[in-house]
Design goal:
By secondary structure, the protein is mainly alpha-helical. Helix content is about 60%, strand content about 10%. It has a three-stranded mixed beta sheet with strand order 1-2-3. This is Diguanylate cyclase/phosphodiesterase with PAS/PAC and GAF sensor(S).
Length: about 150
């Protein structure tokens, strides 16, 4: 689970597969260098190195898979069909905000429009923190109301 979450974070922050694989190689090199300097029996060192390399390989593989799955979630939003003709704007907007709010890495989705005075009013929100995020934008000087 940890590798999946880290993979998702790496994808969302732009850490690509090449960097992950270079990091793995670096970790293996550091481990090998440290093991070479230790005294235990050579057979034990080989087992430790093989086990560590395998664990790193599995971890990186899970991170890459998680990044690909996260990318697919974002792409599926872009590839989703438009609402059927005749769908009410409020229904279509609610659906889109709900879909965006379920994407990994997005805690809040806010929809605001200016009122007659030009003050943006939050009309709808989504995401796990959408309800708590709105009030952060209210107040003097923000140009957003509720």
């Amino acid at each position: 689970d940890c590798a999946k979450e880290i993979g998702r974070i790496h994808f969302l922050t732009g850490v690509g597969n090449e960097i992950l694989l270079r990091a793995k190689s670096f970790c293996v090199k550091v481990l090998k260098d440290n093991l070479d300097q230790s005294i235990p029996v050579l057979k034990d060192l080989t087992h430790i190195l093989v086990a560590a390399e395998w664990r790193l390989h599995e971890d990186i593989e899970m991170q890459i898979s998680s990044g690909v799955a996260t990318m697919e979630q974002y792409r599926s939003i872009l590839a989703s069909p438009l609402p059927p003709k005749g769908t009410l704007w409020t229904d279509a907007r609610a659906l889109e905000i709900r879909m965006l709010g379920q994407l990994p890495g997005l805690q809040a989705v806010l929809f605001a429009r200016p009122d007659s005075r030009g003050v943006f009013m939050i009309e709808e929100y989504g995401g796990t923190s959408g309800g708590e995020s709105g009030p952060l934008f209210y107040g003097p000087g923000t140009g957003i109301g509720h």
